[in-house]
Design brief:
The chain is α/β, with parallel strands linked by helices. The chain has helices at 2-18, 47-52, 73-82, 98-112, 133-151, 161-166, 170-175, 254-261, 265-271, 292-295, 311-317, 322-329; strands at 26-27, 33-38, 57-64, 68-69, 86-92, 121-124, 155-160, 178-181, 198-199, 201-208, 217-222, 241-247, 285-291, 302-304, 342-344. It has two domains: 26-232, Glycosidases (TIM Barrel); 241-344, Roll (Membrane-bound Lytic Murein Transglycosylase D, Chain A). Strands 2-3-5-6-7-8-10-11 form an eight-stranded mixed beta barrel.
């Protein structure tokens, strides 16, 4: 009997020494919500048919880089919402620096400003150039944190298996949940060691077919965790407010900015996730939900162009749009303005 126990003990020890620790990537919760993600590739979509097919969630491409707004964004958003679908937005990140990531975050949030979304905002960052792994992670974090600062909402990461295993680190995983692109059997996701051990959504095919859409479409399944907290509003906190984006300048204080726009320091801090109201940084962008009566009576009517200015940057700073500036000033080429040029900001 003792000999038998000794043999069993030795076998158990050998097993422990030879077995490989198994990592598994599993859903964070059940995935009961059927979804799709769309962009200009799908062109005109009949969202009534999409809804009737059983789709519940649609992720819509909003933007890419610092200038590209998906040409079907407004159409997709309006039609998905009118058919009662849950909506989320994603941005295709192409930044090659931390500063570039923050600028793309500013652009993304400006594109979706005022829109109601039900699902967490998503970063699609899959195209790398000459950046190293450390820089890629810094770029991802800069984008995610800037979007969260402006919107007050969580940002998730859309990524494939290779990138979560070999590129993205623990800091990115801690910053946001995972929306995984994986087209094989999810039960095979063992020995998958990454910063994430769970996902809240899975894109399971890129060649799906859905009534109302011509051609292929990405298809997804999502868990309850995909939904934003506090009702999922990406718009202003009050009906009579609209978002203004203000770029902080040297010498600015939060109290001074608050006074200028008729809001409180506490509101500015809350809207922008600022922990220390006495510490703000030149170059960062604030989102301000000013009352329309304040927003429509700016103290500054004209702007003198400085070296390095862009029309988009001026529009962002003064809560207007490039199209309005072009129209007011008769600018023939929106990409060409000159130092010393006077720009009318408002009528």
């Amino acid at each position: 009997m003792k000999k038998t126990l000794r043999i069993l003990l030795m076998a158990f020890i050998l097993c422990l020494s030879s077995c490989t620790y198994i990592y598994a990537l599993t859903p964070k919760d059940d995935l009961p919500y059927e979804g799709i993600d769309v962009s200009n590739w799908q062109k005109n979509i009949n969202f009534t048919e999409v809804k009737n097919s059983g789709v519940q969630i649609v992720y819509i491409k909003a933007s890419e880089g610092t200038t590209f707004m998906d040409p079907y964004l407004e159409q997709n958003y309006a039609n998905a919402k009118s058919n009662g679908l849950k909506v989320g937005f994603y941005h295709y990140l192409t930044a090659t620096s931390i500063d570039g990531a923050r600028k793309q975050a500013d652009f993304f949030t400006s594109v979706i400003a005022g829109k109601e979304y039900d699902c967490k905002l998503a970063m699609d960052y899959e195209e790398f150039f000459e950046e190293g792994k450390t820089e890629i992670n810094e770029i991802a974090l800069a984008f995610m944190q800037r979007v969260s600062q402006i919107t007050g909402k969580d940002v998730i990461v859309y990524s494939n298996l290779n990138n979560i295993k070999n590129i993205f680190g623990d800091d990115v995983a801690l910053e946001g949940d995972l929306w995984l692109a994986y087209y094989s059997n999810p039960n095979n996701l063992i020995n998958t060691k990454s910063g994430w051990d769970t996902y809240i959504g899975i894109q399971y095919t890129s060649t799906g077919r859905v009534p109302g859409i011509e051609g292929n479409v990405d298809m997804d399944r999502f868990s309850q965790e995909i939904f934003v907290s506090s009702g999922g509003s990406g718009g202003p906190p009050e009906n009579n407010s609209r978002p203004i984006y203000y770029k902080i300048k040297w010498g600015d204080t939060l109290s001074g900015i608050a006074y200028r726009y008729g809001v409180s320091v506490q509101q500015l801090a809350s809207w922008n996730n600022i922990r220390n109201p006495n510490l703000i940084y030149a170059g960062n962008t604030l989102v301000i939900y000013a009352n329309d009566s304040v927003a429509q009576q700016p103290s500054q009517k004209i702007y003198v162009v400085k070296r390095g200015d862009t029309l988009w940057g001026i529009a962002m700073r003064y809560g207007t749009t490039v199209n309005r500036l072009v129209g007011l000033n008769g600018i023939p080429n929106r990409n060409l303005i000159y130092p010393g040029q006077i720009i009318r900001l408002y009528k």
